[in-house]
TrEMBL record, chain B:
Family affiliation: Belongs to the short-chain dehydrogenases/reductases (SDR) family.
Keyword Disulfide bond: no
PANTHER family: DEHYDROGENASES, SHORT CHAIN, ESTRADIOL 17-BETA-DEHYDROGENASE 8-RELATED
Keywords: Oxidoreductase
Pfam families documented for this protein: adh_short_C2
Protein name: Oxidoreductase
Record-level Gene Ontology MF annotations: oxidoreductase activity
Domain of life from the UniProt record: Bacteria
CDD domains (UniProt xref): SDR_c
Keyword Oxidoreductase in annotation: yes
Length: 904, 274
């Protein structure tokens, strides 16, 4: 960009006169003066615009002096110089000669050679820049740090530390920064050392792209003020930022330091640039004034900003909800519409009155068998009307239900019984384990209890259910969710989604999966009709579609995996008006075919990010066609009553846009894990920003970014972060690219290690369900992805499947994905006869070609016949360079497209 | 403002379409190098733009907020063109746009066999070769920067014939040919070349244009009636205003037209639609 190598000065030149200026200029250097009239007084917008334009107009290699003569007789002199021609002192010299502060003499040439500006790194994910913008902006921050006595050597380390914080969770603890004098430098920023130690750390010179750098050119002492825009003089250290974020330190009249940021709008938004400048200023201030601070203890956000960021994670609307219990909330609905159908299961229908009566009998039955308020009752039933009756009966008895799926292995059922300390389990499963004296009851046994039972039941803070979640480590743990949480969830969504008696919901999910909590209570507490979906129907999209049509379902809750199967069948006539996604990350692009048949005004699509520990849902994002086209990963702001923080490893809020751990507070936070006080204390921690000192937040273990508009981007689990050959890889991103392919209807990507002990054997395997009417072409799909993804993210294999395997909860089941068959079409050939060529190079080329082309390569295979093209050739060259090998000119490849010919 | 931060060179900028174009560019935020011969030419039977008119155009542009450089330039002389461009680059840095507007309408008004050798050569030299000299001068630097927009002011006389205007029509047809060929030369380098074909433009007093009057004089139409004569020939029953043409030029100079090259944008009230 022209201008990145130029700097400029403006000084007042009122009353000097063109002739005298020309005479002085003639001594200073071989340049001419350009007088130009400005038909306005200096403060008028037109004059301001002219001045700004003149200050920012680059020169190609030399120096330009423009005299702006204003309508009131005053004048400004604007001098723009290429840094190779005049450095800071040289530009100051010329300016002083022209204004008469210095006797005329030739300008000194620059005395310090400048480094080549390092290439620009791609826009950082925290930047929120406008990708197509080519403009730039600036921001200035005045710091109470003495300019003269603070060593300049603190600046780069402060920048490096700030950058590592912006790397967010999983930062490598290193940062690449740049200066115009040294090029790119890599700093190691260990958390344990002090700022003083960091300032003396030796950076390593590297050749790679840079996001942020410092203009370190020698300036005249003292330098002129930067970016005042008014006053008798000002300086612009660069006309365009040489680094996407370029920082300049300059003195203030009061002895303090001005920190100026020049930024590229394509890389960062003005708000992010301002925030980054503020955070760099904070780090620099601590480096200068509290050098003994440990790197890990440096605070980026002051308390005002912490409050601001904490508020950003709170939704605009407050929650209007009174603490209540499920039985009382249900009783109000049942009293209002006793004759409306509450549950439909096959041909069986239960009205609200019947559901009320039958669940009361279950409650009485449980009561009669010794179940008391605060007890836990196991429920292991297929999805049936009976299941709904039983769950309601349990909570009406004042107990909490502990759902298990009849399809679970016996071991898991036994573990639940013992872990939850269950004395009573309601089930029809003959094989249900009877260890530990547990009483098994069939629902019909319970229902025969005499008379309606009605005594005060649970309180709002009592547990309503206990759902087991299997973490990635350790055995499943029971999450205790109180009544009031569920009531709050329904109150948080009722008005926004107009949930009411006209709605028909599905009960699609296993009671052991908390998505069913939303389905059952979302429906019954808003007076809707709940249609039970039998297990085998949930697994057959055609049958499911037929059921949705037959029962005229309006509110559908789905995992994205399950919904993608429904998309495979004709869904045009479905009367659904609201689809709620949960349980898995949603790639919004997969919804485009749905939108074709169901425009947004007929059916609202809502993506909810949720966690069992925070009562099913946390955030909600209405997905529009526009968002789907953009491939948005926003999961929206928190639901009313819920709130979000994104924090670093130490629990400190990170700046908006920076990746960190999602923490969730508010109405949905569960009571904790059953009998796991340590784990509960570890995951449910005090909420430092809540007014109520007893408030807690749940540490989700999920990665996310809070966007500057308060919406959350969910980036997956911390512990499932994938690294392959040192690259951080997001599987969802690869999946998204596969899904963009019109030939792909559904996709999954997993990491597999041929040798589990050897990380170097890790590779990416993709699985795709071909789109309707297309034959599976895994090589074509892979090739297309290879044209978009960086090499390290291209799946090694693409395996076509008829359908992606799902767990009983409707999520992708990676364990049931087949091991891919690798192509063995051409066996690995032995290297050519000895002495014929450079075998090391040939082997390297073969590996690289195989990686780039995704197919086995023999020494005599033609690059282009294997599907190579110029794009792949460029990648081959890049890969060669990365290995320190000589690059391969494209024309050589065209002339001699085989490895043997290239290496002999 | 569609031309903010861009520098545009306009030839024949002292009056008429040149002035209107310069002012329109200024209003869109461009800085301007305004070129004109500022002298009469032997063989052209009417007075050409003056230094005073060029300064007035410059003042109008400055009032709109532009930085302006005025340069005397003879488009018949390659050296003169090169010097003017060098000066403009010195002042403004890389040039973003060029409007080849300089042109003469006469000597005309006679059948082809009555045109003298020197008259023919003069018409071609100014109206066709002048634009080529400018393209020759800026083409290399624009190619190197992979950016630039050149707009040639042709005419409906570049699309259809006009009786007794063989030299003018030949030059303008040639200019459209030059536009298309140069567009292909530079397309790989992202430099665009387009032509604008105005119909009968009113001699607006503010622009001090006199083209229509001179064409009328060449055709022996009484000057008092000439505007009416041309109005009746245009389907929209109105003369083209200089600003109408300038707007087309601004579009082609701007990034809105970033995929438009080698085209002729006709602003003729429907004249050539028949």
């Amino acid at each position: 960009m022209p201008g990145a190598q130029c700097h400029a000065v403006r000084v007042s030149a009122t009353g000097v006169g063109v002739r005298r200026l020309e005479n002085r200029l003639a001594v200073a250097g071989p340049w001419r003066l350009w007088p130009d009239d400005v038909p306005a007084t200096p403060a008028e917008p037109l004059a301001v615009r002219r001045r700004e334009a003149e200050l920012r107009r680059p020169v190609t290699r030399d120096v330009r002096c423009v005299l702006l003569r204003y309508a009131d007789g005053t004048a400004d002199l604007v001098v723009v110089a290429h840094r190779d021609r005049l450095d800071g002192p040289g530009l100051r010299h010329l300016t002083e000669v022209l204004t008469g502060e210095r006797p005329p003499s030739p300008c000194p040439p620059p005395d310090v050679p400048r480094a080549e500006t390092p290439p620009m790194a791609p826009a950082p994910d925290w930047g929120h820049g406008e990708p197509t913008a080519t403009t730039h902006g600036s921001h200035h921050l005045d710091l109470p740090v003495p300019y003269v006595t603070t060593p300049a050597s603190l600046r780069l380390p402060a920048l490096a530390l700030t950058l590592t914080r912006y790397d967010g969770h999983g930062s490598t603890g290193t940062a690449t920064v740049g200066t115009d004098r040294t090029g790119a430098l890599e700093y190691a920023v260990p958390a344990s050392i002090t700022l003083r130690d960091l300032a003396t750390a030796e950076p390593t010179r590297v050749t790679r792209g840079v996001v942020a750098g410092i203009l370190d050119e020698p300036e005249a002492t003292p330098p002129l003020p930067v970016g005042t825009g008014a006053g008798p003089c000002e300086r612009l250290p660069c006309l365009a930022p040489p680094f996407p974020l370029t920082f300049v330190f300059s003195p203030l009249p009061d002895g303090g330091t001005r920190l100026s940021c020049f930024f590229r709008a394509g890389h960062v938004s003005a708000a992010v640039a301002e925030g980054f400048t503020r955070h760099l200023g904070a780090v620099y201030r601590q480096s200068a004034l509290a050098a003994g601070t440990a790197v890990a203890d440096v605070e980026l956000l002051d308390s005002d900003e912490q409050d601001r960021v904490a508020r950003l994670g709170r939704p605009g609307a407050a929650l209007a909800s009174e603490p209540d219990t499920l039985p009382r909330a249900f009783a109000r609905v049942a009293a209002a519409t006793p004759d409306a159908v509450a549950v439909r299961d096959g041909e069986e229908e239960l009205t609200y009155r019947e559901l009320d009566e039958r669940s009361a009998r279950v409650a009485a039955g449980l009561r009669a068998r010794g179940v008391r308020r605060g007890d836990r009752v196991g429920v292991c039933l297929e999805r049936t009307a009976e299941l709904v009756v039983t769950l309601l009966g349990v909570v009406r008895a004042g107990a909490a239900y502990v759902p298990t799926d009849p399809a679970y292995p016996v071991d898991r059922l036994a573990h639940t019984v013992s872990d939850a300390g269950l004395n009573v389990v309601v089930t029809r499963l003959a094989e249900f384990p009877r260890d530990g004296g547990v009483t098994l009851l069939r629902p019909d046994e319970l229902a025969d209890a005499d008379g309606l039972w009605d005594v005060p039941g649970a309180a709002p803070d009592d547990p309503a259910y206990l759902i087991y979640t299997s973490g990635s480590t350790g055995r499943p743990k029971g999450v205790i969710v109180p009544h009031r949480n569920v009531v709050a969830l329904i109150d948080a969504t009722r008005d926004e989604y107009r949930l009411g008696p006209d709605d028909t919901w599905t009960l699609f999910h296993s009671a052991a999966f908390d998505f069913s909590v939303w389905e059952i209570w979302g429906c019954l507490l808003t007076g809707g009709r709940l249609v039970v979906v039998p297990y085998f129907v949930t697994r057959d999209p055609e049958d499911f579609r037929d059921l949705l049509l037959a029962r005229q379902v309006t509110v559908l809750s789905q995992t994205p995996s399950a919904f993608s199967q429904l998309l495979q069948v004709d869904h045009a006539r479905l009367p659904v008006r609201l689809v709620v996604f949960g349980g898995e990350p949603l790639d919004s692009r997969m919804l485009l075919p749905w939108f074709d048949r169901h425009p947004e005004h007929t059916c609202r699509m809502v993506n909810m990010f949720g966690i069992t520990e925070t009562t099913v849902h946390v955030t909600a994002q209405t997905v529009t066609r526009e968002l789907a086209l953009a491939g948005s990963r926003s999961v929206g702001p928190a639901l009313p009553g819920w709130h979000l923080y994104v924090t670093d490893e130490r629990g400190r809020l990170v700046p908006p846009g920076v990746t960190g751990e999602i923490r969730v507070g508010g109405a949905g936070v569960a009571a904790g894990y059953l009998d796991r006080p340590d784990l509960t204390a570890q995951r449910f921690v005090p909420d430092p920003y809540a007014q109520d000192p007893s408030a807690r937040v749940y540490r989700s273990g999920d990665l996310g970014r809070l966007r500057p508009d308060g919406r959350l981007e969910h980036l997956g689990r911390i512990d499932s972060q994938v690294k392959i050959r040192g690259f951080r890889i997001e599987l969802d991103e690869i999946r998204a690219v596969l899904l963009e392919d019109p030939a792909v209807a559904a996709a999954a990507v997993v990491v597999r290690r041929d040798d589990p002990a050897d990380p170097a054997t890790a590779r990416l395997d993709a699985y795709v369900v071909p789109a309707d009417g297309t034959a599976a072409d895994p090589q074509g799909i892979r090739k297309r992805a290879a044209g978009i993804l960086p090499e390290h993210m291209v799946p090694a294999t693409v395996t076509p499947l008829d359908v992606l395997p799902l767990t009983t909860n409707g999520k992708l089941d990676p364990a049931r994905l087949p091991v891919p068959v690798r192509s063995t079409a051409s066996a690995r050939p032995a290297p050519g006869p000895g002495g014929e060529g450079d075998i090391g190079l040939a082997e390297a080329l073969r590996e690289i070609w195989e990686a780039v082309l995704g197919t086995p390569v023999g020494l005599d295979d033609d690059f282009f016949e294997l599907g190579g093209n110029s794009l792949f050739a460029v990648r081959v060259s890049a890969a060669l360079r990365a290995r320190g090998l000589p690059s391969l000119p494209l024309r050589d490849l065209y002339r001699t497209p085989t490895i043997r010919a290239l290496t002999t | 403002m569609r031309l903010t931060g861009k520098t545009v060179v306009v030839t024949g900028a002292s009056r008429g379409l040149g002035r209107a174009t310069a002012v329109a560019c200024a209003a869109e935020g461009a800085d301007l190098a305004l070129l004109d011969l500022c002298a009469d030419l032997p063989g052209v039977p009417y007075p050409l733009g003056t230094a005073g008119q060029l300064e007035h155009t410059a003042a109008l542009c400055r009032k709109a907020g532009s930085a302006v450089l005025t340069v005397r330039c003879d488009v018949r002389d390659l050296r003169s063109v090169e010097e003017a461009v060098a000066l403009a680059e010195d002042r403004f840095g890389p040039l973003d746009g060029v409007v080849n507007n300089a042109g003469i309408a006469a000597p005309s008004g006679r059948p082809a066999h009555e045109i003298g050798e020197e008259e023919w050569a003069l018409m071609i030299d100014v109206d066709l070769s002048g634009a080529w000299r400018m393209i020759r001068t800026v083409g290399k630097a624009m190619s190197a920067r992979r950016s630039g927009s050149i707009v040639n002011i042709a005419s409906t006389a570049g699309l259809v014939g006009y009786r007794h205007f063989a030299g003018y029509v030949a030059a303008k047809h040639g200019l459209i040919g030059l536009t298309k060929a140069a567009a292909l030369d530079y397309a790989p380098r992202k430099v665009r070349v387009n032509a604008v074909c105005p119909g009968s433009v009113r001699d607006a007093p503010a622009a001090e244009g006199r083209m229509l009057a001179e064409i009328a004089r060449a055709l022996d139409v009484p000057v008092s009636e000439h505007e009416e004569t041309f109005v009746t020939a245009q389907p929209m029953n109105a003369l083209i205003e200089p600003e109408d043409v300038a707007a087309a030029v601004v579009y082609l100079l701007s990034d809105d037209a970033r995929q438009v090259t080698g085209t002729t944008l006709t602003v003729d009230g429907g004249f050539t639609a028949r």
